[in-house]
Every structure is written in C-alpha cells, then in structure tokens.
Write a structure and sequence with these properties.
mainly alpha, DUF4153 domain-containing protein, membrane
Length: 414
C-alpha cells in the first residue's frame, strides 16, 4: 500500500478511498512513509488525523461486531466438541487446540484485507491439510513425534495467520513487523480480558454460592470455556479498532523488560556456574534452558520492533545488543549440550527438533546482533534490524512444516 499512498498523496479522493478500504493497513503504511513526506501540508494533516486519539472507544462497524460474536461462538463450540460428540479429551485437545482460535482470526484478517481468491484458497487448503493430517496420526501413547507435531502445528497455524495478516504483499517486511507487533499487543489485551473475566467469574460463582446455588462446575464448563475461547478474537478486534488502547503500553513494557531480562540472564548464567548445574547431562534442565531461550528471543524481537518504531535512542540499542549477545551465549551452551547428547546417546525426535530449532535461532540471533552492532557504528538504521527479523520469519514457517508433517514419517511415531 506504500506505493499507492505515495502515488495518490496529492489526490484527496483517491487517498480517502485507500483509507476507507483498509484503515488499519493504511495507517501502518502511512507511518512508514511519513518521514519521506514530513513538511508536506497534506501529509501533516493526515498524520494528525490518523493519530488523533478519540476519548471514546471505537466499536467498529456492525458487520465487524457481528463477525466477532459469531466467531467467538464458533470458537467456543469447537472447544466443546468433545462434550457434544463424546470425543476423548486427551485425544482431541492436544491435536486441535490451535483450531479453536487461529482459523477464526485468519478468516477475520482475510476478510479485512480482501485477499484474492488464490490466497484464500491457499490458506483454506493448508489449514485443512493440517486438520486432516494431525487427526489422522495414530493415537500412540508416549509418542514424542506426536507431541512435537501437535506443538508445531500451533506454530504452523500461527504462520498461516501471519500470511492472512500481511495481505497480498507477502514480501512486505513492514507488514511482517506489524504482525509481530500485533502479537505483542494481543498478548497484552488478551491477558487483561482474561484477568477481568476471571474476576467477574469469581464474583459470580461466589454470589450464587451465598444463596445456596453451587454453579461453579456448570459455569466453567460453558461460560468459562466460551469466554476463554473468545478472548483472542475479542482482543484482536479491540486492538485493531482501538490501537491506542495498548499502543502506549507495549513500548513501555519493551523498555522496562529489556534491561531487566538482560540483568536476569547475566545473573542466571553466573548462578548456573555457582550451582554446578550441567545442561549436558540434565535433560530437564536443558529443556527449561531452551524454553528460556525462546522466551528471551521473543522479548528481543518485540523490543526491536518497538524500538524501531518509537525511538532511535542509543541506550536502547546498546541494551538490545547486550541482550542479543548474552542470548547468543545461552544459545551456544544449549546447542553444544544437545550436540553432546546426540553424540553420546544418539538421535531422537526431541533432540532433532531441539537441534534444528537452536541452529535456526542462533543464526537469527547472529544476524540481529550483527545489525545492532552496525546500528551503533552508524552504518545502518535501526529499521534494518527489523527488516532482518522480518526476512527470517519464513524460515521458521518452513521449520514448522518439517516438524509437523515430516517428523512423524521419518521417526515412525517414536
């Protein structure tokens, strides 16, 4: 959309049509271009218009509200399928929990972005393949490949959601970064919704308990399940229609947690040496170590997205560089530990998955760290770091396909 805005900047009618066609995407694209047109009267007016914060909550159009209600009900019904059709919950939920939320969100963005028939067909077919494949796998107890496939299927569906989010411009790096920012905002909004819902539920159950009616089980089996299932859809709608709700919270969280996580990681590495913990021989410790790595990686990515958008503060870049460097060290320890375990005890599905993930993350971190160093050396802009992250996202998508669909076949459901 950047090129369309650039071409029609001096044509108010066409510019207004672009805005009304997709307001959220127009705003993101305009913000990217604004530095190029700063000082232009029309561009300055649009800047003020797009960033005007209404004191009232925007509830969007009736059609959007209707979709949110219907999508929330469908998500709740999918979550209740085991109860409706007497399906084994241990079989259903590990395989299908991603289908409770992601398809509804994907359809929402496909509709909002007015995707082409070809792209809608691609999204529908890939989602259907995932649904059929995961539910056709044999119900083998204690199957590592089945667990890995179920976990990575969620990441696969998340990637499909990203394809719908970026719209027709699949290679648009700014749109990919906007997708990462959307995920951060969604986590904040959904958490607030769940906290508020939890408080309301506790009050409701206890109020009925005071008059002798124990509704806890029934309430959580129906109202609770539908509420939890609907929370991501409602959170997405609020984030999209009212970006100001968390637009100022997310940068603050990024600025606060980046230095805190850096200190925590340094202290943790020192504590590992002091405590004598050995990731090379302790399997559980290695798993936690890798979970920590993924969490820190997410914080780095989100912080870089916010830093690139909000500020060019050198201190913030230094913190991100140090955090990325320390995370590379953590990744190196984890990678050497998994290589050691493979050499000593052989390859297994879990070890192969962890090895592949660690290698991909290490390469990504090294690319990001190099870019951050160049930013401080004033060889590149901070935006280039975000572009590096955006360019790497498809590689993670390919990895989710490998683990989800190929690992069960290679390792024979071990």
């Amino acid at each position: 959309m950047e090129n369309e805005i650039r071409n029609h900047l001096n044509n108010p009618t066409e510019l207004e049509a672009l805005y009304r066609n997709n307001k959220v995407r127009f705003k993101r694209s305009f913000d990217v271009l604004y530095t190029e047109f700063k000082g232009n009267a029309i561009a300055d007016c649009w800047k003020e218009r797009l960033h005007y914060e209404s004191p009232e909550l925007n509830w969007g159009s009736r059609s959007e509200l209707l979709y949110v209600v219907v999508a929330s009900l469908i998500a709740g019904l999918v979550a209740k399928l085991p109860a409706i059709f007497n399906i084994n919950e241990d079989y259903f939920y590990p395989r299908n929990i991603g289908f409770i939320v992601f398809p509804m969100l994907t359809i929402f963005f496909a509709w909002k972005n007015k995707l082409s028939v070809a792209k809608i067909a691609f999204i529908a077919v890939t989602t259907l393949i995932g649904l059929i494949f995961i539910n056709s796998l044999p119900n083998v107890k204690q199957s590592d490949t089945l667990i890995l496939s179920c976990i990575h299927l969620g990441l696969f569906l998340w990637s499909i959601l990203g394809i719908a989010f970026v719209g027709e411009q699949t290679n648009d790096k700014q749109q990919r970064l906007a997708f990462l920012k959307y995920n951060g905002d969604l986590v904040v909004m959904t958490t607030l919704i769940l906290i508020a819902g939890g408080i309301m539920s506790a009050i409701t159950v206890n109020l009925f308990g005071l008059i002798g009616l124990e509704i806890a089980d029934t309430y959580f089996q129906y109202v609770g399940v539908f509420g939890i299932s609907a929370a991501p859809m409602v959170g997405t709608y609020l984030v999209q229609t009212n970006p100001q709700l968390v637009g100022k919270v997310s940068p603050v969280i990024a600025k606060i947690f980046s230095p805190l996580v850096l200190v925590m990681l340094v202290v943790y590495l020192i504590a590992i040496v002091y405590a004598g913990k050995n990731p090379y021989n302790d399997r559980e410790f290695l798993l936690i170590f890798n979970a920590l790595l993924i969490g820190v990686l997410a914080i780095i990515f989100f912080s870089i997205v916010e830093t690139a958008k909000a500020t060019k503060n050198t201190t913030a870049v230094w913190i991100l560089l140090l955090l990325a460097t320390v995370t590379v060290i953590v990744n190196g320890v984890a990678l050497s530990a998994i290589v050691f375990r493979i050499a000593e005890m052989g390859i297994t599905p879990n070890r192969a998955a962890v090895l592949g993930s660690n290698v991909l993350i290490l390469i990504n971190l090294l690319l990001v760290t190099t870019k951050l160093f160049k930013v401080l050396a004033k060889k590149v802009e901070i935006d280039d770091v975000g572009k590096t992250i955006a360019s790497y996202l498809p590689i993670y998508f390919i990895w989710t396909i490998i683990v989800t669909f190929i690992f069960p076949l290679i390792f024979g459901f071990k």
